[in-house]
Every structure is written in structure tokens, then in C-alpha cells.
Amino acid sequence: MRRRAFLAGLAGVAAVSLTGCARSPGPEPxxxxxxxxxxxxxxxxxxxxxxxxxxxALHWIGNTTSGPQDIQAAVTGDTDVGGAFNGAILQLAAxxxxxxxxxxxxxxxxxxxxxxxxxxxxxxxxxRDLIGRxxxxxxxxxxxxxxxxxxxxxxxxxxxxVDSVQLVxxxxxxxxxxxxxxxxxxxxxxxxxxxxxxxxxxxxxVFTDVEFLGPFTAGSYVxxxxxxxxxxxxxxxxxxxxxxxxxxxxxxxxxxVVARFRDIIARRDRNEDTTAIEYFxxxxxxxxxxxxxxxxxxxxTSWLERDGRxxxxxxxxxxxxxxxxxPYAATPPDAAGAAPVAAPPAGRGGEEPS
Length: 354
Fold this sequence. Notes:
Number of helices: 12
Strand content: 15-25%
Shape: globular
Helix content: 25-40%
CATH architecture of the largest domain: 3-Layer(aba) Sandwich
CATH class of the largest domain: Alpha Beta
Number of strands: 10
Distance between the termini: 45 Å
Strand order of the largest sheet: 7-6-8-5-9
């Protein structure tokens, strides 16, 4: 595969396609416009349901198709917040996008992770065996492309060998079949898709992201700098409420979190399949309440510079994010869980406007 610019297409953010929604209204004071995810509950949605947003209203304008698309929508002003892999945020900021990450929202740990899977009889055993192979990923320029390329590089592969690994975009729902049918050599599988595939047998992991990098917060929500300057109180209430929802999900038994998600999806009545949330195991977020750690941007900055994809010194990773709105930022790590968030009965929080 020819060497491809990482996230080429994010630099020229223009029109953004929003799925399954009405035309986005203009910004309104005290309102945060956002995209959701089909069959899933975002942490801002959980915060709204728990009544944690302190008067801030969420306005759902549809569902996102990917992390890169979600932050593009925030940059162009179609939404006020968007979430993506931190490496994608870094690249977009390097291209001049006026955005700041405000809270971590997904990550990887020993219960929530993604793996690079092959058929049981595959000759691929090590990362070096991936040279010249095809790999199914859910999107280009995202988490799994970056983890793969970093791992290949750290194993000593040359740039030409790294670029010989061909990435093919395949929807997660089709990745397992593409692997089993022999259309592709490797498929990235996570969450429900991983667990279902492993239950059927006949596949094995070459490596997983958590085995390679350990537990880490992988993605953050961003807001436009203009929004943060114009609506600081709205931003603070949004982030603080979302942080408390994250902390609640980090503290509660899995069954309680899943039950809450299931109830939220049923009440919002969008004709969604709730199968995916039954496979929820953890938030995967490393910092209590989504507090962003320096290495969660620094790791990707250093790698992109070494890989020749980012001019050294062009981006200061400490200026890409802020924890100033997060109430857990000043909490010592050993006391972070000392004040559990009390959850009100389902449906008692702020309802989203239609």
C-alpha cells in the first residue's frame, strides 16, 4: 500500500454529513448540540438523564458515523461538541482547527479493549508477519490504525514494510465475516464483535491494544475555542456533569450501568437495537471522571513526530486539552473514588429537547 498521509482529509474540513437527523439549528445559549451513537448511550446523555448538567440542555441532531466525522462536525459548527481518538484530535489541531479537548470519554483496559485477530490456521503469528497483509479497521486515521502503525514501527519494520500493511475500512458488523471468508487477513474486533467471534471459535489474537500500550484513555470530547470563550458557564456545567456521569459509571457494578443504559435507550424511542450495550464491561477511561493526562496526547505527539507525520515542535500537546472544567482534576488519585455519585431514578434528569 502506498504511504498515506495520516488523517488526510481532516486538514481540509468542510461540509460534514450528519446522519439520521434534522437540519442542525444555530447555537443557542445554554444548549449543547451533539451527535449520538445508535444503540449506545454517551456520557453526556447519561449525565442529562441523571440530572447532572445544571440547567444545560442537550440537543441531539443525529448519530455520528465515526470519531473523525464527529470532531469535524464540531469544528464546522454543526455541533458544539464531538469526540474522537486523541491522535485524530492532535492532527486536526495541527492543521489549524481551533479546538480544545475537555474530557476523556473512551479508553482501553483489561476488560474493554480491541484486538487484531486472525483465523486460527493463519500463518500470521507475530506483528512482523503482518507485512504485506490486509487488515480490516472501522475507519482510517483512527485509534486502531495508529496503534497498529506504532506497534509495527516499534518492532523495527522499515517505513516501506509498515506501508505494505494494507488497511481496509470494513464496518464492525462485517469484520468477522470478512476475516472468516478469507477476504482479509486480519480484522480488528472489539466489544460485542470480539466476544461474539471468540465464542464461535476459530480465531485468535495477534495482539491487543491493551497488551501493547497498557490501560489508557484513548479519546476525548472537544469543543471549539470560540464556544469555550462565548459560553464558559455552559462548557463548565457540561463537562462537570459529564465527568460525574463518567465517575458514576466507573464506580457502579456493570449490571447497574447496563440497566441504566437500556432504560435510557428505551425511553428515547429511536427504534434502536440494545444488543451492543449488553456487552458493556467498563468505561475503559483511565482518569477518574475523564480527567485527561499529559501522556494521553504526548504519546501520540511523540510517535507522529518520529514517524515523520508531524513536524517536530509544531504542536505542544499540553495546549491541546484542558481539565479546568473537570471537578475531578484536583482530586488526589487515592481519594478520587471517595465521594460516589448518587444516581437519581431513571428519567428524573434533564430531558433532551427534540
